[in-house]
Structure to design on (188 residues):
């Protein structure tokens, strides 16, 4: 009798956890980051359905639970290297394809170099015009305060999202903070 009660309790707990997971999957947005040219080209040539099947297969994850879903959002760009951000024609093509496939869009920018400020401001104006023509919003990952200001000035349809590099600091193992000192952390 004791084991039967224990089994019922375990089955009820498993059922509760499975139901909770199903609810969570419905409410969580699945996103995929395309962060280098070979992924840009593959997405443009295959479309989201064929691309995602190939993506999971190439990474040995075709049987995982996530592989059974299409992403609701695509991230284009790379937060760590500005050289991996797509060229404008490729970016606009990917955005158009994502828009046609009813996917949400987020653009990932690294921190903006001084010599790219004007070029980035012009690109943001074009992206805002693209959004205006389609009456849609896109997210823009910003990794420095200058980029946040550019998004504010040039993008009514661009929603800024804070990136992982926004608070940069040298991470040297010889630094004093490793030993508990806060001496070098006052200003950055």
């Amino acid at each position: 009798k004791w084991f039967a009660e224990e089994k019922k309790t375990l089955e009820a707990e498993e059922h509760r956890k499975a139901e909770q997971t199903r609810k969570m999957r419905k409410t969580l947005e699945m996103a995929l980051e395309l962060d280098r040219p070979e992924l840009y080209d593959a997405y443009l040539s295959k479309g989201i359905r064929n691309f995602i099947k190939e993506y999971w297969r190439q990474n040995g994850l075709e049987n995982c639970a996530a592989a059974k879903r299409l992403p609701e959002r695509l991230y284009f760009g790379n937060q760590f290297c500005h050289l991996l951000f797509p060229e404008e024609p490729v970016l606009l093509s990917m955005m158009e394809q994502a828009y046609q496939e009813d996917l949400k869009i987020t653009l990932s920018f690294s921190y903006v170099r001084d010599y790219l400020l004007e070029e980035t401001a012009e690109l943001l104006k074009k992206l805002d015009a693209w959004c205006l023509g389609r009456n849609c919003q896109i997210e823009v990952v910003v990794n420095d305060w200058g980029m946040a200001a550019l998004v504010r000035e040039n993008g009514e349809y661009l929603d800024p999202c804070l990136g992982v590099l926004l608070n940069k600091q040298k991470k040297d193992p010889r630094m004093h903070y490793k030993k508990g000192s806060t001496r070098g952390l006052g200003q950055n």
Q: What stands out?
A: The first strand starts at residue 31 and ends at 34. The helical segments are 2-27, 37-58, 88-100, 117-134, 145-154. Strands lie at 31-34, 73-77, 104-108, 138-142, 158-162. The radius of gyration is 22 Å.
